[in-house]
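User
New here, explain this?
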Amino acid sequence: MVLPMTLFTPEDLLLYLHKESSQELTAAIETALKDDWTLREKLMVLESSSLELDKLVVAPRMEVILNVMNYARETADESVHQR
């Protein structure tokens, strides 16, 4: 059973990419990929986007780091003065 491309959501394609789709969905997507070049293109875009996301390195803003450091300094000062 081949589902028309319009029935494959981006979520379906992401499940397929991450090998989390059901056997039925996997088979339907693989069959459709053979004949539907737009589906292949969409899959390639999702795949390249996913690869780019894997490369991202996220760091906190400097403001957040300074707030944590100030809080630590204040609580350390309080504990020293309470002794």
In short: Helices lie at 10-17, 23-35, 37-55, 62-81. The chain has one domain: 5-81.
